[in-house]
Amino acid sequence: MTAYTRMVERDGSLSGLRAYSASRPPHSEGLAVTIASYLAHETGLPNVNLLHLSSEKALSAALTMATAFPHIDFRREVTIGHLLADVDTAHGLGGKVNPPLRDRDDVEALWRHVLAGDVDWVVSDHACCRDEMKFGADRDDVFLAKSGFGGAEYLLPGLVGEGTRRGLSLQRIAQLTSWNPARRYGLLRKGAIAEGCDADIALVDPDVSWTVRAADSESAQEYTPFEGFEMSARVTDTFVRGHRVFADGKVTAEPLGRYIRRGR
């Protein structure tokens, strides 16, 4: 990636998010997946989570490795950012993230893999920071900006809105965002609405249209790569262990999170 970055900067024909994607091309992601998988095979590692897969080449490599090493329990993840935005539609350098946002062809490939059942969970990859930390001295230089952005509040609106339009069922969305990761990470009281489980519930209105504006967000992050995106679903209420903490677009309770020791 260091060599590619030097090449892109020296060439100078690309800028912004497209330049950053070229500095970390999809085949380097596929190579990283292949190396990690082979090392897991060599060391006898039984479980591998392949996270933040952003391209067709990355998913193809992940599926190839699952066939090559059937004794390893692979899980594959994509983020809502990589499913909703591409290098051309994301709003400015706020869309810098690792792996980078890709071309629209890769976005469509990710959706095909999600619909085919090749993806085990979809996450927000919520990694935000304030404006002054995100951007460097030169706000037009993508290589000076920090990587990462907030995505939690757009995870369910994006999956319910765009996902159902593409044929993704609500049950599958619940599996991708809750049940599957809870089981994988040993969070045995999470992932289901059932007796003995924590009442962590998000209510989503699937028939409301709204425009993403950073200024309207409860987050302290002053920017979003989804600025101006049109959404067709919205979270109306959120409950943590049965306590309503979010309603009508506003946080309504003090923080209730607590440390959960992971099960085995």
Question: Main sheet, how many strands, which sense, barrel?
Answer: 4 strands, antiparallel
Dominant shape? globular
Strand content: 5-15%
Question: In percent, how helical is the residue content?
Answer: 25-40%
Please state the CA-atom Rg, rounded to the nearest Å. 19 Å
First-to-last CA distance:
36 Å
Sheet with most strands: strand arrangement: 4-7-8-9
Secondary-structure element string: HHHEHEHHEHHHEEEEEE
Low-pLDDT segments, ≥5 res:
none
Derived structural class? alpha/beta
So how many helices?
9
Let me know the average pLDDT: 95
Number of strands: 9
Oligomer: single chain
Report on this structure.
This protein is α/β, with parallel strands linked by helices. It has 9 helices and 9 strands. The strands form 3 sheets. The chain has a 4-stranded antiparallel beta sheet. It has a 3-stranded parallel beta sheet with strand order 1-2-3. Helix 1 (2-11) packs antiparallel against helix 2 and helix 3 (26-43) runs parallel beside helix 4.
List the keywords.
single chain, 264 residues, alpha/beta, four-stranded antiparallel sheet, three-stranded parallel sheet
Write the layout of secondary structure elements.
Layout: H1 2-11, H2 16-23, H3 26-43, E1 47-50, H4 56-68, E2 73-79, H5 80-84, H6 104-116, E3 121-123, H7 131-134, H8 152-165, H9 170-184, E4 201-205, E5 210-211, E6 230-231, E7 234-240, E8 243-247, E9 250-251
Parallel strand pairs: 1-2, 2-3
Antiparallel strand pairs: 4-7, 5-6, 7-8, 8-9
